[in-house]
Design goal:
Blueprint: H1 4-21, E1 39-41, E2 44-61, H2 63-69, E3 75-87, E4 97-105, E5 110-119, E6 123-136, E7 148-161, E8 167-188, E9 195-218, E10 221-234, E11 237-240, E12 254-261, E13 264-277, E14 283-307, E15 313-337, E16 343-366, E17 371-394, E18 399-420, E19 423-444, E20 450-461, E21 472-484, E22 487-501, E23 506-523, E24 526-547, E25 550-573, E26 577-588, E27 617-618, E28 622-634, E29 639-652, E30 660-672
Parallel strand pairs: 25-27
Antiparallel strand pairs: 1-2, 2-3, 2-30, 3-4, 4-5, 5-6, 6-7, 7-8, 8-9, 9-10, 9-11, 10-13, 11-12, 12-14, 13-14, 14-15, 15-16, 16-17, 17-18, 18-19, 19-20, 20-21, 21-22, 22-23, 23-24, 24-25, 25-26, 26-28, 28-29, 29-30
Length: 673
Amino acid sequence: MRLRSLYRFAAATFLVMSAAVAQPVVAPTNAPIQTIRGEDFGGYNFTNTFETGYRFRSVGGDLGKYRSDVNFGNGLRLLSGNLTAHSKEGRGKYFDELLLNTQGLGNDPYQYSSLRVGKNKLYKYDFTWRLNEYFNPGLTLASGQHFRDTTKALADHNFVLLPQSPFKVFLGYSRVSQTGPGLSTVNFFGATRGDEFPLFADIQRRQNEYRLGFEASVFGVKLSVLRAWEFFKDDTRKTSPFLQAGNNPGDDNTLSSLRRDEPYHGSTRSWRVNLLSDRSKWMTVNGRFTYAGTRRDFIFDESSVASQRSGGALNRQVLVFGNGRRPVTAGSLTLVFFPTERLTVTNHTAIHSTRIDGDGSYSELDNSTLAFSTLEFQYLGIRTLSNATDINFRLTEKLGLFTGYQYANRRIRSVEQTAFDNQPERTEYAQTNQLHTGRFGIRVQPVKALRVVLDGEIGRADRPIYPTSEKNYHAIGGRVQYKKGSFLVTALARTNYNTNSVSLSYHSSRSRVYSADVAWGPRPWLSFDASYSKLHLDTLTGIAYFYNSDLVNDRSRYISNIHTGYFGSRFVLGPRAEFSVGYSRVQDTGDGRRPGPAAPYILGTTPAPIEPGTLGFTTYPLAFDSPLARFSFRVNKSIRWNAGYQHYRYAEELIRQQNYRAHTGFTSLSWAF
């Protein structure tokens, strides 16, 4: 795989798509109350600010989709809080600095708190806690029977001993847990004559990580070593404790009972070593080494009792168990040379090796007929070696050039072995891919307020692993920035073309990203912010599928045009009041056509057949927008009253069952001393 071009495109895609999920929210309020001087007590200066209030919501349409996207509800909560304590002379008895920040505690679906405690030259402790209530109605899958309503808690502890000394000691602990109810489905008696039965899931997932390390600085060389132990377990249980007729009540298939345990436990032991030397003014050296050895063990234990339309009963036990190992080794060495003040040469060499192997045993016991078992072994090894050289040369104060070349060699080897009734079968594969990448660009600053960057990249790979992988590609882009006083405007454009044709299939993709950002504060009491971006994606891929038992060689074309825009403005109305408005919108226009609504699927019926060739064109136009307004009034030097309103609208043109409109808002009081 190519590296930098792929990373740039992935980053651009992430930025555009993040705007669809991380919309600006109307609360908490960021308006300051006053210049906080705090209160003195016991040799410390304390400051405290908090905002508490009531959120409300009213949803029309699909409540489940709203909860999956936004999930703000009704009720009182601590919208935000901030507590600080600083020793006045820098020599506190137990600590010299204490910072506590909170957001959304009480009833918000996304809660956050952080704590920092430190004593000069002795220790520093950082704690972060997050709680996310994740709701997924699962409407687009299995008629809502893949529902999830879980709570995910994340906690992170970091302790540094002797933080200002040349020798530091690190201690850390992290914990992630996900718990809650869910639904799933299981099929009995085959895909054509069988039926689907819903199952209740009790989701229990936990992960713990322990860290120990040090950092030492001697003669301009910095060495850091970190050892980590990570333990993960998933003890989710799925059950059907009562008699049910399944999703198709027209047949005679029934499920009397089912219990399925799928414990999945594992551990990862890792080393991280970093060496940095920047004492010389002519060069710097940075070396990194990482090793992570992962082991996983799993068990699938299922017991079920069911009956089918022919009158036959099924009393079955299934046991699957196995283990897997995944050692990952990565190392890199970066050398940066400064021959002159205007020339910089960077050479980066990296190696990455991933090996995955494991085996599994499947045993099925029909209590009334027979038993059989099979043993499978899988191995996958990926080794990547790359070297890149980049040159930056500043011709003048206003003109600079940069270029680079990268070579990557990746070898993939896999082994598949199956033993059924003591008859082994083994298959081995191996493939090597070489990638050559060239980069070039120019930086221009014609005037003091204007900066222009233009760059391009071209790559050629001989044997990409997937039909959708990069093979013959090129990318070009540019960035312009103009800043004068409080006025700042930035524009970006990037194009990425890729073609990958092999003997059995073909794939081509074209993506273009355009964006612009404007920020302007013409007066101390008035400011504006606006941004717009467009991501165009057009892919054409060969696809093969069966239709009426015949193999059909077809093609799939996907077109997406995602437009993202935001506008915001802030007004300070005299010495006491502040008013702000904003509007954000994300819209995928597809190819510009307006398809009619899809016919709803009725549970238990057979979907309409798909004719060959109709899979070839796919587009999903939708829109999500959210206007907001907020008003804040300072009652006195310590109290501020806040109120706000935010509207959410989600609209799909193809499948409209998930569309919704939501009215949300809040009122709160902020207090500070």
